[in-house]
Design brief:
By secondary structure, this protein is of the alpha/beta class. The protein has four domains: 3-132, 3-Layer(aba) Sandwich (Rossmann fold); 160-276, Beta-Lactamase (2-Layer Sandwich); 286-447, Alpha-Beta Plaits (2-Layer Sandwich), CATH 3.30.70.270; 458-709, Alpha-Beta Barrel (TIM Barrel), CATH 3.20.20. The protein is built from 28 helices and 27 strands. It has an eight-stranded mixed β-barrel, surrounded by four helices. Strands 2-1-3-4-5 form a five-stranded parallel β-sheet, sandwiched between helices. The radius of gyration is 38 Å and the shape is elongated. Residues 1-12 and 711-718 have low confidence and may be disordered.
């Protein structure tokens, strides 16, 4: 390039770009994009057309596809090398094999972008390539005209966006432009005569030493390396640079002494790019909510740990941790509070493990934990106990004290599996065993558990068939007036008459129904059947008998929830004021307008709303005032604490006193003896239910046992 061409380059800032691809539509799209940024853009359809354009015209940059018929992108680059065409090349291709990428870079490609390209990334790469091309052109002109154009040389160098330097044969700075002051804070004069190693970060010194040693052995080829440099001011973050060097061998006189120059180089600040790449890499292997390793990174570390364990005859443990009651909290308090809870849980879990362990968020409210050096089941069990103890403490989030538990499954290598997938699967199976046996605990996997996991899947399949074949039955537990001692209501409870396993209790199938979302259809069938059966007794001696039905939060989330309830009541001719829908406290904790609206619509229609198991969740006076609540049902755990009329009843006293003050109806669950009944009556509790009056049975059987309406306390206690 001549001096005249450099002057044209300075005046004419519009870069000339050639696009080469066999897809005309892509060429048109890319040409339009680049023209928006004032680039002069030509196109070539196919490799042969690109060669002709390059041979007849000057271009600063070539954007080249690799896979083109007849003449490929590789052929085009070979032609450019053979004919010394100095146009910078960026490959934009769908080819992603290592061989294609490596070959393109060996043939002189500046960068490689994968189709479909991201416009912002492509524009940034084009801009950087143009800048580098212009700098390289400028540097060549500077080298060839150094003696004739010292003023122009210094102007270009000192206004370069990069650090420009010259090293002598000892690796010490002979020249530095002023960019070193802006980027690293050094006065360039204080570095003259000092080795470049003085400003390289210690961790990169060995790499840099090898790089420069190899560079000085080559007389012609340029080399590049990414390296960290140390700012002058202590405490400033280190910065990353791309060092490009060109070996030279020149001697000049300095202060009467001959000085030999060995390396001319540039240092481009790539800190922003490195940080962006680090963030992208972090995203690929971490969960952004909790900052924990994600599933991919966990599997990578487990795979390495398995290899080491097999080689050294060691043991390891994999834990599968699932939070109990998280879905209720997430549905009731909202996803924002759910996310905050997951973050808080993550910090608790990290406090329970060692530095060498790996905790990951596997997905949703599931976590996995790798203990790479767990020599016995006892060691893993101790970690699980520590986690359970930590998790059970309340989480203070905003105005809420949130309680969760955890179900933990443990798989030990090699007993619980010898492969990555087997260990994770078996830890998951052990975790589900905990879920099915009461939650908030842990199990170590044993091979008999695989039968349980299979049975769970079969149970879900059987449940779908059972809904079609009407295998579910409604049982009822009586609710008695504490003062008249008469039957005033019935709580409907679903049972499954399984054709092979016999009659199943809710604890055996409700968790499966909730996980599979079959609970929605099951709740609807239960409500319709209960209304139909109880309506029969409205017409036969119990005209004011109240029906209580539990509802899943999943059913209430449906848009047609209110319409379905009212349509069911109309179809079964069931009076709205005799239906009481039982919901959990968790549903009320978030001020969701849809929940308020749905419950208000039902309340306005006459349907009663009750809070089930009151006192075990997030009991708060605020939601009792915001929502149309009619009844509080005191959980059986509090009733069980009443041993005598004087002992351990303060919670029950407080709940009943509060409910009476708010003019709410009160139902006490789990009443098992006369002492409990008498105490509740003395406090003003309106209604009771429990084994004192019998277990839940089909309605006809219950009514035969109770007989016509009359006081039942004496017969129940007999």
């Amino acid at each position: 390039m001549t001096l005249h061409s450099l002057e044209l380059l300075d005046r004419d800032v519009t870069a000339r770009i050639l696009l080469a691809d066999d897809d005309p539509r892509l060429l048109e799209s890319l040409q339009g994009l680049l023209k928006l940024y004032q680039y002069h853009v030509d196109t070539a359809v196919g490799g042969q057309a690109a060669i002709e354009q390059l041979s007849n015209n000057h271009y600063d940059l070539l954007l080249l596809d690799l896979r083109m018929p007849d003449v490929s992108g590789h052929d085009v680059m070979q032609h450019m090398l053979a004919h010394e065409i100095a146009t910078m090349t960026i490959v934009v291709s769908g080819e992603t094999s290592i061989d294609d990428i490596s070959r393109a870079l060996r043939n002189g490609a500046y960068d490689y972008l994968k189709k479909p390209y991201v416009p912002e990334e492509l524009l940034a790469t084009v801009n950087n390539a143009i800048r580098k091309k212009r700098l390289e052109d400028s540097n060549r002109v500077m080298e060839s005209r150094l003696n004739r154009s010292e003023k122009l040389h210094r102007f270009i160098v000192n206004n370069s966006p990069d650090i420009i330097y010259i090293l002598d044969e000892k690796g010490c700075f002979s020249f530095l432009n002023s960019k070193i002051e802006q980027l690293l804070g050094y006065d360039r004069n204080e570095l003259i005569g000092h080795p470049i190693a003085a400003i390289i970060e210690e961790d990169d010194l060995e790499k840099a030493h090898y790089f420069f040693e190899q560079a000085t052995r080559s007389e012609h080829s340029s080399r590049s390396i990414e390296i960290a440099m140390r700012p002058r001011e202590a405490g400033h973050s280190k910065r990353f640079f791309e060092l490009s060097i060109w070996p030279v061998d020149e001697t000049s006189e300095l202060n009467g002494a001959a000085q030999r120059y060995r390396i001319y180089g540039t240092a481009r600040d790539i800190t922003d790019r490195m940080e962006a790449e680090a963030f992208i890499n972090f995203q690929a292997y971490h969960d952004l909510l909790t900052r924990l390793p994600n599933r991919s990174l966990f599997k990578d570390r487990l795979s390495m740990a398995l290899t080491q364990a097999a080689r050294n005859n060691q043991r390891l443990a994999v834990m599968f941790i699932d939070l109990d009651r998280f879905k209720v909290i997430n549905d009731s308090l909202g996803h924002t509070m759910g996310d905050r809870l997951l973050q808080a849980v993550s910090q608790r879990l990290l406090g329970c493990i060692r530095r060498g362990d790996t905790l990951s968020r596997f997905g949703g409210d599931e976590f996995t934990l790798l203990l790479p050096d767990s020599q016995s089941p006892l060691a893993a069990s101790q970690v699980a106990e520590k986690i359970l103890e930590s998790i059970k403490e309340p989480f203070k989030l905003g105005e809420h004290d949130i309680y969760v538990g955890a179900s933990i499954g443990i798989a030990l290598y090699p007993e619980g599996g010898t492969t990555l997938d087997a260990l994770i699967k078996n830890a998951d199976i052990a975790m589900y065993r905990v879920k099915n046996t009461g939650k908030d605990g842990f199990y170590v996997f044993s091979h008999d558990m695989t039968i349980s996991a299979t049975q769970r899947l079969l149970l879900e399949q059987d449940m779908r068939r059972a809904l079609e074949n009407d295998e579910f039955e409604v049982y009822y537990q009586p609710q008695m007036d504490t003062h008249t001692e008469r039957l005033v209501g019935l709580e409907a409870l679903v049972r499954w008459n399984h054709p092979a396993m016999g009659r199943l209790t809710p604890a055996e199938f409700i968790p499966v129904a909730e996980d599979s979302r079959l609970i929605v259809e099951l709740d609807r069938l239960t409500l319709a059947a209960a209304c139909r059966q109880v309506r029969h007794y409205h017409q036969n001696g119990y005209p004011e008998l109240k029906l209580s039905v539990n509802l899943s939060p999943l059913l209430l989330d449906r848009d047609n929830f209110v319409d379905h309830i009212l349509e069911t009541l109309a179809r079964e001719q069931f009076p709205t004021h005799l239906l009481e829908l039982e919901i959990t406290e968790g549903l009320l904790m978030n001020d969701r307008t849809d929940v308020v609206e749905k419950l208000t619509l039902l309340s306005n229609a006459g349907v009663q709303i009750a809070i089930d198991d009151f006192g075990t969740g997030y009991s708060s006076l605020s939601y009792l005032q915001k929502f149309p609540i009619d009844t509080l049902k005191i959980d059986r755990s509090f009733i069980h604490a009443i041993k005598t009329a004087e002992e351990e009843a303060c919670i029950v006293n407080a709940i009943i006193s509060m409910a009476l003050g708010l003019k709410l109806h009160i139902v006490a669950e789990g009443v098992e003896n006369i002492a409990q009944l008498s105490y509740l009556r003395s406090l003003g509790c309106h209604t009771v239910q429990g084994y004192l009056f019998g277990q839940a049975v089909p309605l006809d059987e219950l009514m035969k046992r109770l007989g016509p309406p009359h006081p039942l306390v004496a017969s129940a206690s007999a």
